[in-house]
Amino acid sequence: MNGSPLWHQNPALKKWILDAVLLCKPDHVHLCTGSEEEFQELVKLPPFIPLNPEKRPGSFYCRSDPGSFKTASPMVVMIFMLQTT
Predict the structure, then answer these.
(1) Nearest 10 degrees: Cα torsion 36, 19, 74, 39
(2) I need a labelling partner for 28 at 20 to 30 A (CA). Which of 22, 50, 69, 71 fits?
(3) 2-11, 20-29, 56-65, range with the lowest pLDDT
(4) Closest-CA residue to 79 (of 60, 58, 52)
(5) Residues 37-77: pLDDT tens digits?
């Protein structure tokens, strides 16, 4: 691995991301690098609620505020965080 994020090294994944952005037209896109520093910063944000560390170490519940969406459309935002040790 050359130090760049995994999504950056995978042409099929890069195309899938671009296709999703073109389809969904988000105001902002943030692609995670997967660094420990980024992980620690993300889990400090209000939507992340730590789960029981004994049962689910490193796991968080994340929800969005329905009032934060521009339109009242049935939209689901999914965030997957994968941390390797």
Answers:
(1) 0
(2) 50
(3) 2-11
(4) 60
(5) 888 888 887 778 888 989 988 888 877 666 665 554 555 55
